[in-house]
Design a protein that fits this description.
Helix content: over 70%
Structural class: mainly alpha
Strand order of the largest sheet: 1-2
Radius of gyration: 44 Å
Order of helices and strands: EEHHHHHHHHHHHHHHHHHHH
Number of strands: 2
């Protein structure tokens, strides 16, 4: 039983009697050895633990490195399969890569692309939506979702994701990616008969094009498709300024000028187009029609009054011939006193005017040209409504009428 003044040894826990300064157990030879063994055991245990954790860390690190290497190996196989246009093999390879690296966003992205290309759209959408939830501003993810919606002809969803991609975050070359994405969106809208939406996207695209003649020509052709001929002409002119021999640009500029009613400019562009590509039948036809219009139009500047009068008489006679041929094909009698159709009424009006429509009268009274040509245009329009597409001379007169009407508005 401890007495007053006794205390416990902090080393061995034995009782130190009152009046003793040192522990009799620890100071004994066998106590010293026991204490030394215990401290050695502690040190060895600590060393063993350190070694164990070091080995464990090395093994774990080695394991992860092996997993990463295997994932990379299968990823490369997937990339090779995609380049070889073997999307099903790519799907298998990317799936295997994800076994070794489950949360790798790049592997998931490429797997989704391979699934889209192999027509596994539902599975691709699952991966893409997962990636989108993780990074809603990722340009690549939004682009793939836009393409997926485009494959399904879902215009609103495609617009949503393509716009997200255009204004999204890209790892590299953001301006190039955004321009290419908008170009792809324009192609999709044109293919899905959305000309109004396509035109607005093309206008935005046209403001951010680099000095690339092929791109300017491509955008110019798209503007032709939406019938925005002014902007189409601007794009073709930009392409030709950068590279005069760019394929299709002369033809595009000629077509745009032709549709705008600038036939002299169209003639110059179309001549170049046909000389570059004699097999371009559309340009050849427009060239011949432009030449015909320029030779028939009495309103062309810098021609003499004599030539203007001659052209007016020729147009009047051509329009009367067209009406007669049209009436004959429809079984109409133009000689009836009671006009039963607009065509008969116009022919009767022309017959009354015939005596005064000659070159001499027109030279003496130049203002009469407008009155005669107004009647010519009316006859040609009515004949077109009654009998359909006319021969080229009458078609040329109709185009002069449209140009004249646009100029007067």
């Amino acid at each position: 039983m401890p007495l007053e003044g006794d205390r416990l040894c902090p080393r061995c826990g034995q009782l130190i009697p009152a009046g003793h300064t040192e522990c009799p157990v620890c100071t004994a030879p066998q106590g010293f050895l026991w204490r030394l063994e215990r401290e050695t055991l502690v040190i060895v245990s600590i060393v063993l633990l350190v070694v164990f954790f070091a080995i464990t860390g090395f093994v774990v690190k080695r394991y992860h490195a092996t997993q990463k290497a295997l994932g990379g190996h299968w990823y490369q196989r997937g990339e090779a399969a995609l380049k070889a246009n073997q999307p099903l093999k790519a799907v298998d390879a990317f799936h295997t890569a994800l076994v070794y690296s489950r949360d790798n966003s790049t592997y998931q992205m490429r797997l989704a692309e391979a699934l889209v290309r192999s027509d596994h759209l539902s599975e691709a959408q699952v991966y893409l939506q997962t990636l989108w939830i993780r990074e809603p501003g990722n340009g690549t993810v939004n682009l793939e979702l836009g393409r997926l919606a485009a494959r399904q002809s879902d215009v609103p969803e495609a617009l949503r994701y393509y716009h997200n991609a255009i204004f999204g975050v890209w790892d590299s070359s953001p301006l190039v990616h955004r321009r290419e994405t908008r170009l792809e969106l324009c192609q999709f809208l044109l293919a899905n008969n959305e000309p109004t939406q396509a035109e607005s996207e093309l206008i935005a695209l046209g403001t951010e094009l680099p000095a690339n003649p092929a791109l300017h020509a491509q955008v110019g052709k798209m503007f032709l498709q939406v019938r925005d001929y002014h902007r189409a002409l601007q794009q073709f002119q930009a392409a030709l300024k950068l590279k005069p021999k760019i394929p299709g640009a002369w033809a595009g500029a000629g077509e745009a000028s032709f549709e705008l009613g600038n036939y002299s400019q169209a003639y110059r562009y179309l001549q170049k187009a046909v000389s570059q590509n004699p097999k371009d039948l559309n340009s050849a036809q427009q060239l011949e029609l432009s030449k015909l219009i320029l030779s028939l139009d009495p309103f062309v500047r810098r021609i003499s009054q004599k030539e203007r009068s001659r052209r007016t008489v020729a147009a009047f006679n051509q329009a009367r011939l067209r009406v007669r041929q049209c009436a004959q094909s429809r079984g109409l009698n133009l000689q009836e006193k009671q006009a039963a159709s607009p065509l008969q009424s116009l022919y009767a009006k022309a017959s009354k005017m015939k005596g005064s429509v000659n070159e001499r009268s027109l030279r003496r009274n130049p203002d009469m040209t407008n009155k005669v040509m107004d009647l010519v245009f009316q006859m040609e329009r009515q004949a077109e409504q009654t009998c359909g597409t006319p021969p080229d001379p009458d078609r040329a007169l109709l185009m002069i009428a449209r140009t004249r009407g646009a100029a007067e508005r």
